[in-house]
Amino acid sequence: MKLKRGFGLLVLLMLLVFAAACSSDDASSEGTEDETETGETTDGSEEEATSGEPIKIGVLASLSGALESYGKQTKQGFELGIEYATDGTNEIEGRPIEVVYADTETDPKVARQKAIGLLEDDKVDFLVGSSSSGDTLAVLPLAEEYKKIMVVEPAVADSITGKDWNKYVFRTARNSSQDAVAGAAAIAKDGVKIATLAPDYSFGRDGVAAFTKAAKDLGAEIVHEEYADPTATDFTANIQKIIQSEPDYLFVIWAGANSPWNQISDMKLQEKGIKISTGAPDIAALSTMKELVGMEGFTVYYHTLPDNEINDWLVEKHQEKYDAVPDLFTPGGMSAALSITEALKKTGGKVDADELITTMEGMSFETPKGTMTFREEDHQALQSLYKIRLEEQEGVDYPVPVLERVLTPEETAPPIQN
């Protein structure tokens, strides 16, 4: 009797163990399904986890101060770039795009503080910016520290993709060396004597260094380098030194509202036999260059120069939205947006920095200036620039940049300096 009772208990225990095992298997199966839905486990979970979550982009720009016009152009171009890339949905791979703008006030300390705020408080996935090379150089280390992609636009200092570069930095803006190749191509040749004028900070000094090398390679002689306070309003002493050096050309590198053009005109350099050359600036600055009609130079962009569908769309939309044509740095803002959206399309909306770096290195993408390509070695975007002549045009109250020829991405490719 005891044997039967013992056998019965053993069978009961076995049934209980089997039932518990089945229950555990079912629960495990249910848990796996739940986790798959929330994206916490299983292959492809990251895509499911991020689906519907916003992609946040922090844009640093000079929205006040000396470079305010440049910052606003970048902002407008970036907004239009997102609109173009998403067909107006403001979504990539099912993820809404949120853009947070921060005013650097053209102050490197402020730029760094604002960037930290974007990274820590707003939790942005990308940084973009900024209008000033000084601001940008202050922020570059943060991209590496926080492991976030930073797309540099429109700052041009060579050191950004040179000695101060890190692998998280990509630049859609052209750099000083690209400007230099274009500027030298316009005026430099054997026996030509050239003086330079530039602001006394990284943008100006890097630009002059790059121009000097390119001009000397073409046989020109640099007879004087003049650097002015970037906040100056009186350039008399600077220009007098240039006149004393007796150059054939004065090549000017400048950015900001306090430009030297009026004083260059007032001091009658051209009547003294000194021809002026520069990169044709934004429309506001072109309005101060009426005395320079006939000048040979280059430009980053003027809305009539590129011949492609994206630029046509940009000109039409910008005119419709702002009742004005896009200006010098508007297409750069758009190009920065297009580079990010193109990369996100390729990663399926994933924002992992390592995957983005692999995706973006060597990536080509279409912009208002045509095809750009991020060079693998330093992440500098290779791009077209334009050799131009300033001419009068009926109905336009400033000298208009007229195309002489497109300088190709291969032709303007800068040296690798990182």
Automatic annotation (TrEMBL):
Keyword set includes Signal: yes
Cleavable signal peptide: 1-19
Record CDD domains: PBP1_SBP-like (cd06328)
Compositional bias per record (Acidic residues), positions renumbered to this chain: 27-50
Record key words, sorted: Signal
Positions of region (Disordered): 26-53
Family: Belongs to the leucine-binding protein family.
Name of the protein this chain belongs to: Substrate-binding domain-containing protein
